Amino acid sequence: MIKVGDNIPHTTLMEYSEVEGEGCSIGPNAVDVSKATAGKTIALFALPGAFTPTCSAKHVPGYVEKFAELKAAGVDEIWCVSVNDAFVMGAWARDQKSNGKVRMLADGSADFTQATGLTLDLTARGMGVRSNRYSMLIKDGKVVALNVEASGKFEVSDADTMLTLVKA
C-alpha cells in the first residue's frame, strides 16, 4: 500500500470535459497523474463509487463546500477519484455541481487504485474491484498525508480533516 513519502503512481486517469479549453477537447481526456501533480498541492479523495449513498450525500458535497477554504489554505486542486468511467464521473460532476471546484477523475480500469494498493473487492455485491474510501494530500507528486477509512466508515477522509491537515 502507498504510504507517506511515496511518489504518486505513474498512471493515467480520465476526466470528462463538457467544454473545450486549455488543450482539453469535449469528452474524456487523459490526465497524466505524475505531470498533473508536479509542482502542485493536491487534495485527493477516493471512494467506492459514483452515485453511491455516502459518496453522494457526504463525501463530495463536503469538498465542494470547503473548496474556498482549501484553496485559501494552499491547495491548488481537489481531485475525486473513483473506479468508474469518465462518462459516469462527468454525469456525477453535473449532479454534484462540482465543476470548477472538484475534478472528478475516472479510474475506469482501477489502474491507479491498484497501483496505490488501496483496492476494495466488492465482487460479492456485484460491483467488482473498487477503491477504498481515503484521502491523501499530495505535494509535488509526493504523498504527505494519507487517511484510509476503516470498512464502512466515513471519519478521516472528509473535507474537514483534509482542511486541518493542509493548515498544519
Query: Architecture, according to CATH?
Result: 3-Layer(aba) Sandwich
Determine the CATH superfamily: Glutaredoxin
Between the first and last Cα atoms, what is the distance in angstroms? 24 Å
Total number of helices: 6
CATH class: Alpha Beta
The H/E string reads EEHEHHEHEHEEEEH
Rg over C-alpha atoms, rounded to the nearest angstrom: 14 Å
Could you give the order of strands across the largest sheet? 2-1-5-4-3-8-9
Q: What's the shape?
A: globular
Number of domains: 1
Whole-number mean pLDDT: 93
Which runs of at least 5 residues are low in confidence (pLDDT < 50)? none
Predict the CATH topology.
Glutaredoxin
Assess the beta-strand content as a share of residues. Answer: 25-35%
- The residue fraction in helices comes out at 25-40%
Can you describe this structure?
The structure is a single chain. This protein has helices spanning 33-37, 53-65, 67-72, 86-96, 111-116, 159-167, and strands at 12-17, 27-32, 41-47, 77-82, 102-106, 119-122, 128-131, 134-139, 142-148. The protein is an alpha+beta fold. The chain has a single domain, classed as 3-Layer(aba) Sandwich (Glutaredoxin).
